Amino acid sequence: MTALRGRQAAAPVAPAAPVPADPPDWVAALTGEGPEHDQALRRLHGLMLAAARHQVNRMRGLLPWASHTLLDELAHDSADDAVTTLLAKLGTFEGRSRFTTWAYKFAIFQAATEVRRRAWASREVSLDDVELRADTSAGPEQHAEAADLAGAVAQGMRAALTAYQRKIAVALLVDQVPIDVLAERLGTTRGALYKTLHEIRGRLRTHLTATGHLAPPSTTRDAR
Amino acid sequence: MSRDQRSRRLTGEAARSLTLSTEPWLSCEDCFRLLDGYVEALLSDADRSRAMAVHLAGCAACAEEAQSLLLFVAGQDGTDPAPALRRLRAADSQ
CATH 1.10.10 in chain A, residues? Predict the structure, then answer.
């Protein structure tokens, strides 16, 4: 399985070259020098390219205009950037997972971010303080509860949120702007925007609990 | 500016997401730091962090990357991802 995996991953990088085996100690190999380092780096790049291609393939529907060549270039660029990021963070690997699982997440993150960025590159992101109306188009009775909640949330957003919070909430959860795309447009980070969204949810829950639209929180569970 | 440009329909799904409890708090940065271990725990059905499950339910971008990593690792290992995917989705819906 390992050999097959290696051929699939490394072939596009260096088709004629034999696929290096996984080093027994990735961190030592990548921080060392000489042939062992070079082999480990080539093996790592092959694995990262496979992970980036997997991610681009999952999200290719967001880029219907993109050619196969462009998508593959995107995967290569993402793998290159992910390897650079990983090498800079090599000292943070704590061994809580296999090294390869830890590595793959860098490629997947980089490729997903890049696909979303390109998908929204020519799209305007509106940050107007818009009026929200409950969507009552669903019709069936079983959706009445959801429509009631939507109406209460629309009112609650006016009562409990600042204008900035309303704009962020609408962009992320109504207009479905990806959080990393919105962060880039606003010159902030994905983490900072998620923190804002967390605060928005907390304020809305407090308001809607007070107005009787949400049940009070029950017992808390440990976070671990 | 027209009324359509100045207003939006709020669906029940969006309303539920806006009122989702995201306690216990976990940042996107910590989610990324813990993601590899969480995915391996899903694949082996080991103990998992509730804070991670809560975060993935509330952050679509992190959830996409978690599901993708799970599928990729399972594919590399030649294992069936379905049980771990069910565990991931069950955690999201709690």
Answer: 140-210
Partner-chain residue, chosen from A1, A130, A205, that has the shortest CB–CB distance to B6: A130
How many CB pairs below 8 Å do chains A and B form together?
171
> For residues A85 and A13, what is the distance between their CA atoms, to the nearest angstrom?
19
Q: What is the model's pTM?
A: 0.89
The CATH class of A140-210 is mainly alpha
Q: Which of the residues B3, B5, B19 would you substitute to probe the A interface, choosing the one with the greatest number of A C-beta atoms within 10 Å?
A: B19
ipTM of the complex: 0.93
pLDDT in tens, A114-155: 999 999 999 999 898 998 998 877 666 557 778 889 999 999
* Number of residues in chain A: 224
**Out of A97, A109, A198, closest to residue B25 by CB:** A198
| Eight-class DSSP state of A173 | I
Question: Peptide bond before B81: cis, by omega within 30 degrees of 0?
Answer: no
